[in-house]
Amino acid sequence: MKIRQLTPENYGKAYALLRQAFPRSTYEVRLVENFHKNGTAVHEWVCIHRNTIIAYIAFSNAYNGSRVCGLHLAPLAVKPEFQKQGIGSELLRFALRQDIIKENTLFVLGNPGFYTKFGFEHCALPVCPFDKNNAHFLSIRNKAASPFTVGYESEFNRK
What we know:
The chain is α+β, with helices and mostly antiparallel strands. Helices cover 26% and strands 30% of the residues. Helix 1 runs antiparallel to helix 2.
């Protein structure tokens, strides 16, 4: 198993993985396709096993108004037949060790039971526009002291 940055020649394989990992949703694959189509700055890694992409992770900018205030982790995906084997956890641990990730506040909208194992904590501030009461909104290195609604790249709002 190898972890590498996603390269343009593997975009199609990453999209196929996202379709498999989220079979009832087209949102995740469209999100990543739009990141690439629009040239949005995204930090992406994939886990490769036997020349097949089996996991994917991405981080995009988080905003306080027009100012970048951190990174959003989304999506994290693992090919269904490789789920529940620690591969997503290993990919996340790898990403958390990368300089660009270590230097930023991180936000994630996800399962607290999973993400708290990696140092994410519930955050009251900023407010997540996609999560009523921030019940599933977590962060690392969050120093927000005044209220604001965290912004996402425009691709998150596309249907």
